[in-house]
Amino acid sequence: MISSGAANDDATDERWEFTNLHAIDMRREDDTEIARELIGQMETIGFLVLTQVPGYEEEVYLDACKALHELPASVKHDMFLQKDEPTHSNVYRGYQPFKPNDASHKEFFDQGFPVGPMDAQEAALPLYEDTPFPDAQELQWIKESFCKTQQAWFAAALRVLRLLALGLGKPAAFFDPWFEGATLTTLRTIHYAPRASGLVDSSQLGPEDLRLTTPEHADSGILTLLATFGYPGLQVYIDGEYRSVAPIRDTLVVNLGDLFARLTNYRLKATFHRVLDIGTERFSSPMFLEPKYSAAIPRGLMDSNRTSVDQDLPHDAPLFGDWLMRRMMASYAEWQGFVVPGGRKPFVEAIELADFANSIPGHDTSW
Ligand SMILES: O=C(O)CCC(=O)C(=O)O
Ligand SMILES: [Fe+2]
To answer: Which fold has domain 14-356?
Structure first.
């Protein structure tokens, strides 16, 4: 259920016709009905919004995001990933700068979850590393706000996943083992600038690229929670056209990743979306809910009579972490320089991308 209407509360937004996504109040406790609504939205639009997320304080979090991205270039550089600063050891968590002639026009910071305590076998797998934050005492509030937000959103995301499991006819705890003891979930804060600000060279890009600051894509993993902090710009592909999502403060947009869509045999949708260059600075923050590295994701996981994701697994089931690396490098420009760590290369290369391709009508799956 969606409705459209021009926003009239912000004069700068008049040029867009906004679509309101279906909203679910997280204070509600009627789980069976919420599960029904979630499935209804995810089968059709693939997007909805959550309101009243417990423990989430958007005002402080937006201030913290702005403060992080406004730090001096040298402080941001100290948090760069190894692919952008070879003397650094962090390969997955940290700061990524604006890149010349990139279809995306953003700088962003990726935070992982606290690394320990984790069982030794899990901890030995790639991608688990501490997130570099600025050291200065007066900046600790930024980290505190990020961590608090991460906890609140993670709890909300797991609740949504349990409700989706229920709605799909599984026990609510069906997916829980994927998140026991560890998670590769990423909380990202993004700072967009208008292309016209000339921060990096855009001379190789075509006119369509120049209209956008994030090109069309579907998210890759399980599910995404997103704060747009009241900024316009997010567009979702609905009924054959891109529609602008109404920018509403204190809400979290939710959409599914294409791995999850595939697990449901595309009954649920991983919908394409993109971000327009709105001509001003823009901040947003997605959290990509990801299982732990060792979570197995065999074919037909949900077709069987399993009552839990870790029941009756084939011994050669692909691991989530291997799939994640394969998918990131195949699909997203910012991961092009990523080197698969440790002994995982053969496993990563064995992943058949076609096994995980999405099938949104009207879009090919050439990633
Ligand atoms: O910035 C936004 O509003 C959306 C960003 C997005 O879709 C993504 O990072 O996957
Ligand atoms: Fe996205």
So the answer is: Jelly Rolls (2.60.120)
In the sheet where 106-111 sits, what is the strand order?
23-25, 47-51, 251-256, 223-227, 282-289, 186-192, 106-111, 94-96
- Which residues have any ligand 1 atom within 6 Å of their CB? 190, 214, 219, 226, 228, 234, 273, 275, 284, 286
SS3 percent helix, strand, coil of the chain, rounded to 5, is: 30, 20, 50
**Residue among 273, 281, 288, 290 whose CB has most ligand 1 atoms within 8 A, to mutate:** 273
Ligand 1 atom closest to 233 (CA):
3
Contact by Cβ (8 Å): 28, 2: no
What is 71-114 written as a DSSP string? S-HHHHHTTB-TTTSTT---SSSEEE---TT-SS-EEEEEE---
AA letter at 192: Y
Q: Is the dihedral of CA 21, 25, 30, 31 positive or negative?
A: positive
User: Is 60 exposed, middle or buried (CB count within 10 Å of its CB: 0-12, 13-18, 19+)?
Assistant: middle
pLDDT in tens, the chain (367 residues): 444 444 444 445 555 799 999 999 999 999 999 999 999 999 999 999 999 999 999 999 999 999 999 999 999 999 999 989 999 999 999 999 999 999 999 999 999 998 778 999 999 999 999 999 999 999 999 999 999 999 999 999 999 999 999 999 999 999 999 999 999 999 999 999 999 999 999 999 999 999 999 999 999 889 999 999 999 999 999 999 999 999 999 999 999 998 999 899 899 999 999 999 999 999 999 999 999 999 999 888 888 899 999 999 988 899 999 998 888 877 666 677 778 877 898 888 888 766 555 444 344 433 3
Q: Which one-letter amino acid corresponds to residue 33?
A: E
- For the whole model, what pTM was predicted? 0.93
